[in-house]
């Protein structure tokens, strides 16, 4: 479960095939609007395979590139990372794999939380350091790796809730898209 502040309302989102979205006092069960990507089952069945790629030998290419489409995997939560999938869907990016046989690169996102403060209600404030590794599936090698740092956490949080700064998703997506060749 994740919580973040949207304007001045607290929002809670739970994603896993369906979802719970809560903002302010309104709570609604929703299905994520992910179109043809709604079936993550085939990807979920291969999560262990994707995560094993984190240990793949690294290449030293001056300009790393890969062919095909991508899937983003959160290594800590061991699941498809919708923080990156949703923007690709919204932008109608040709880079998003809709089936495992389309995957040319697995983008592994390894988040590490750094506590930077405490909220008056007892929650912790975090900055996220996300190490992003691009693994070329055909080569079986990690071709690029970079650490990105989130923005600062919100200045306040609901009683007892932890909060973290937002990852620079657009910057990460642009970095990955710069390696793609079709």
How does this structure look, described?
This protein is α/β, with parallel strands linked by helices and 182 residues long. It has one domain. Helix content is 15%, strand content 41%. Strands 6, 7, 8, 9, 10 and 11 form a six-stranded mixed β-sheet that branches. A four-stranded antiparallel β-sheet has the order 1-2-3-4, with no helix packed on it. Strand 8 and strand 9 (124-136) form a beta hairpin. The protein starts with a strand and ends with a strand. Residues 1-34 have low confidence and may be disordered.
Task: Provide a count of the helices.
Answer: 4
Radius of gyration: 17 Å
End-to-end Cα distance: 36 Å
Class computed from helices, strands and strand pairing = alpha/beta
Q: How many DSSP-defined strands?
A: 12
User: How many domains, as an integer?
Assistant: 1
> Helical amount among residues, as a percent range?
10-25%
From N to C, what is the helix and strand string?
EEEEHHEEEHEEEEHE
Shape: elongated
Report the sheet-strand fraction.
35-45%
This entry's quaternary arrangement is: single chain
Major β-sheet annotation: 6 strands, mixed
